[in-house]
């Protein structure tokens, strides 16, 4: 119950352990089509260029920036946590010029500040932000941010690593141009895969680049030849076949449950956890109006030893919860309720274990 | 029995299906140390910076080039197949200047031509080549090429995707500076992971770069913080936990068998396949002195329909063999004898199936 990887169901583990077939085997090609369709469902998009990048979420992030940013491009990044900062790193390393809207960790990105920057710099080409900040438990207002981007004629890049499958995300409805996620959060698949989707405006930008994408491995112009609809399935790199079996199974489970039902389950799980922890006197660090249900950031009670309690929880109760990152290190815990792990039994166990761990000295 | 992914043993599949733990869990940290030690054994190196990149071999290639090539650097690349060409792409995309020694596909890289280039261009900083060319079945003379590189004061980058575990490879003995491999060839692990190793001269170059590595995801300066010895295991990206369980198990199996024994098994398997196929009148496309035992490139007999026979083998005999790539498309088949798949039963089945498939019309 940390910030991810989340628990993986036996069903997904079993799927992953099926015999490895070739990445150009007709059986596998059919599976690729299925995965694409299921990802379109999960992202709520008809984008043909919707596929899993063969590497973790950080590589999905890099795929979006490396393909869309050209040297000299101005990119406005909203930073209110670790992953916004990582976006700035990506822009810079792609030769872009990063402008930043900063907000306090634990607060939402301020829409007015974003609009001010967009209107002051009409040459900004891309607006990038994190939908669900895993480092702080904050939901940024993706719908409004995308609207602003469109209004100022920018593309947008959205980090949906922790949001996909956990809270409402509507790629086509909100006009998202490029989005990446991770397999190991609310999809409860094994870590190592990053679903991405590129809309028509993004594809056009990629196809009309002036300079080649600096990464061969992540160049969507080449990857489209393997994952593209009706394509020749031209060999680009060897796909991580077994991890894609796992992704396929986890997406099937999401579809069986239903996207809206999955969002509701996360919200209900959060409410149960909220009640349990506040009854113990533990307070939530993020305002309710933009708090993530799947990533609960709570203040460490006074006098409690952060690391000792987390070690005790792991050793005695087989329970992992996450430490604070960056500015929040030592001040908060991050409790994940993601995907398969978001269920009553886990929440009861979590609350009971934390109750015991903070009431007794455990060093 | 294609050019990879090779067959994965049930033991490795079972290991992979163990419950996912966190990438910062103490249990997993111990496993990381084990993996590092086992990779050092497989590569024959004491390099502390020996670890698995969390993505396929193509990303391992990119990790080597992106970390070692700086804009403007001259890199000499030996090209005699697809993967040498891909190296050239990597050099260019890193802002380097690629010089090329070209040899015919199916022939070895000519050492004299390499030496001529190195001596004509004393400002070449890196010599890069493929040890085992998966596209042609050729073994390049890694030991001599590394010696030349050292003699002309260049770093070397070696593609060992198909060689690791299949033929002799001696990273420290040959003075290799940077090497990458793949999980899915002679290690018979699932695809998606790329073991790499960087020697002291390479690490020094990386630590003294003038410009940051253009890839955040593959920046070894950052990754060292997670995989480094005695480090803080600082979070960089979420490791592909289950795929690393699988890698660990496949490396254990290699160590149990013994590296030299594994090389011998591949050689013996090749000899058996050679006898079986030449008895059918099928000839081998690569000269014996530099032929790879683990990747057998054979000429398609006259009058035989390439695609139809491969489809027939897959549909009727559950046997995958590989098509020719690039210049060799339609002219050769590529038969893998890699890792777990390199065993008598498979070879008998392969020879018998090909015998039936080429003797009867199968369209």
TrEMBL record, chains A, B:
Domain Aminotransferase class V: 23-324
Binding residues annotated for substrate, in chain numbering: 334
InterPro entries linked to this entry: Aminotrans_V_dom (IPR000192), Aminotrans_V_PyrdxlP_BS (IPR020578), PyrdxlP-dep_Trfase (IPR015424), PyrdxlP-dep_Trfase_major (IPR015421), PyrdxlP-dep_Trfase_small (IPR015422), SP_NH2Trfase/AEP_transaminase (IPR024169)
Pfam (any one): Aminotran_5
Keywords per UniProt: Aminotransferase, Pyridoxal phosphate, Transferase
The protein's required cofactors: pyridoxal 5'-phosphate
GO annotation terms (biological process): glycine biosynthetic process, by transamination of glyoxylate
Alphabetized GO MF terms: alanine-glyoxylate transaminase activity; L-serine-pyruvate transaminase activity
N6-(pyridoxal phosphate)lysine, modified sites: 185
Gene3D superfamilies hit by this protein: Aspartate Aminotransferase, domain 1, Type I PLP-dependent aspartate aminotransferase-like (Major domain)
Family: Belongs to the class-V pyridoxal-phosphate-dependent aminotransferase family.
Listed PANTHER family: ALANINE--GLYOXYLATE AMINOTRANSFERASE, AMINOTRANSFERASE CLASS V
Protein known as: Alanine--glyoxylate aminotransferase family protein
Organism: Salinimonas iocasae
